[in-house]
Amino acid sequence: MVGQLQHYSDLIVQVAKDKDKSAFAELFDHFAPRLKGYLMQQGADQGSAEEIAQEVMVTLWRKAELFDPKKSSASTWLYRIARNRRIDRLRRQRTAELNPDEPLLQPASVPDVTVEMDARLREQRVRSALSSLPDDQVSVIKLAFFSGLSHSQISEETGVPLGTVKSRIRLAFARLRQIIEADSSVDVD
């Protein structure tokens, strides 16, 4: 057992010094499945455990020179890296799940009652004014502003000449303006 532990430590040293691919392959074959099993025992799902185990092995390849066989064995070093990676992932998930600055988690602003009341009053006035217009003018206004059609599209859809569509919209706006302005001046008094 001690000889085997020393063997894996020696392999890490070979990877550090020479980027020895066969030494790395032997380490990968031995430790990757064991790290995955360890991570799953710690509560990681299979996919996450496999990803973290691969990250640990990539860390071994890139940072093998940081391994000190005097301080720990190869397995202790790799399992510590795996444990720390898992903890880092859990912290990131928690942070991502509940970011206190997330706009959706902020309380909704209290609407200004006067602005809301003004908007409702304006909507009532427009509806009332629309009901006093001739049907041909109301239909082009609805198509232009509620359906979002262009004047040309309204002309095509209704079969009314383009100039007539424009005239009806212009006349409707002039009439709406008169009605709403007259209604507003009555409220002010």
Automatic annotation (TrEMBL):
The keyword Transcription applies. Residues 27-94 form the RNA polymerase sigma-70 region domain. Residues 124-176 form the RNA polymerase sigma factor 70 region 4 type domain. It holds the Pfam family Sigma70_r4_2. This is Sigma-70 family RNA polymerase sigma factor. InterPro entries: RNA_pol_sigma-70-like, RNA_pol_sigma-70_dom, RNA_pol_sigma70_r2, RNA_pol_sigma70_r4_t2, RNA_pol_sigma_r2, RNA_pol_sigma_r3/r4-like, WH-like_DNA-bd_sf. Belongs to the sigma-70 factor family. ECF subfamily. Keywords: Sigma factor, Transcription, Transcription regulation. It comes from the Bacteria. The keyword Transcription applies.
